[in-house]
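Researcher: Next sequence.
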Amino acid sequence: MTERKPIEYWLSDMDGVLVHEGRPIPGAEEFITRLSRSGTPFLVLTNNSIYTPRDLSARLASMGLVVPVESIWTSALATAQFLSDQRPEGSAYVIGEAGLTTALHEAGYILTDIDPEYVVLGETRTYSFSQITRALRLIEGGARFIATNPDPIGPSTEGSLPACGAVAAMITRATGVDPYFVGKPNPLMMRTALNRVGGHSECTAMIGDRMDTDVVAGVEAGLETILVLSGVTSKEEIDRFPFRPSHVVPSIADVLPMLGERSGASAGGDLPA
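Model: Next structure:
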């Protein structure tokens, strides 16, 4: 493998990397603390569009993970920025919660079900059949279909839940219209994350627990990629994919030796990828 530049910027997924089922993963607190104390730029990324960054910061703090609001980047924020760039001060019919509606409002969007320019689908724990019906009829009428993320399932303390990607598939099946997914693995979200952290691809690492979103997003953005096995992807599943992470480690605790080291060198606990 070609030796890369030292890692100066860190991007990390949240669920499955830093937290799992409402609890911090061992090593996550030290990881965040060491980055903060050293002044190393970092960003926590999540495809979850339910919460605002302020909400997520408070939830993480309750678990002992002190992550500033400005160090959190969600698919809701990326979606709002994308739509604002495409059609400033536009209109959208939104299925989602406060994280998405707040981001769109702050981007200057009008939320309406009367002839909107877009239908925007996000995450929610209370998908409504009437809302989905309204969405598909608006799409049939010409509204453009946007979705925050392609994840088919999401985690909860009770088990898996149907997520944005699964509901989007239902709307697509009914309308024949595919959505444009803004969240990971769309390189758009990674580019906006890099811009926010001020990083460059050749000296930035992406840590994730999913091959199909986190790792592929990092690979396509030219980042150093680290797969942790504390989330949804098992070691046995890695070879099913045509791309490979730069490193495979059991958890975020095994990333700690990489802080301040050259990323081209294997970290302690690194598994064969």
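Model: The longest strand covers residues 9-13. Residues 262-269 have pLDDT under 50 and may be disordered.
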